[in-house]
Request: fold
Amino acid sequence: MNNDNGYTVDLPAKPRNDERAVQIDGTPMQMSMQMAEAGDAVFAVGTVVLPDENDATQRKALDFLRSGLARNVGAAPDAHAVQIPLAAGGKVLGLEMKLSGRAGSDHEARTVYARLVARGRHAYQAAIIASKPLQQEQVDQFFSSFQLY
Reply:
């Protein structure tokens, strides 16, 4: 549970936390990350606290997250709509991506699975970054456990 950022998720190991400053459409914001490693994969949830709840602000944040993930592996920022579950029941509309490419200074192969969603004053990026494709069961288990308050 991450009560500060309003989500629950099952991670495969004890998570570590990180935070970094980001610029979204010229506005400085903070992105907090909760991540855990298992095998050749990193499971993570990133949360950006937005300055307001406006649809336009949420869209800009989701575009920033989507294009950043794609740029990291040199892929097109393709995404399709997906329903993200709410802990209290119901769902909200989000985006789902599966990208493959090369990342880092060594240009190592990476597969990225991600779900992006904005709710209220938060934008979320639930992602798995793996050195090789994962079994769909692992991906589904992680994403089905990701629920917003």
Observations:
- The CA atoms of residues 82 and 117 lie 9 Å apart.
- The domain at 7-148 is CATH 3.40.1000 (Protein Transport Mog1p; Chain A).
- The beta strands are 7-8, 16-24, 27-38, 41-49, 80-85, 91-103, 108-119, 122-130, 147-148.
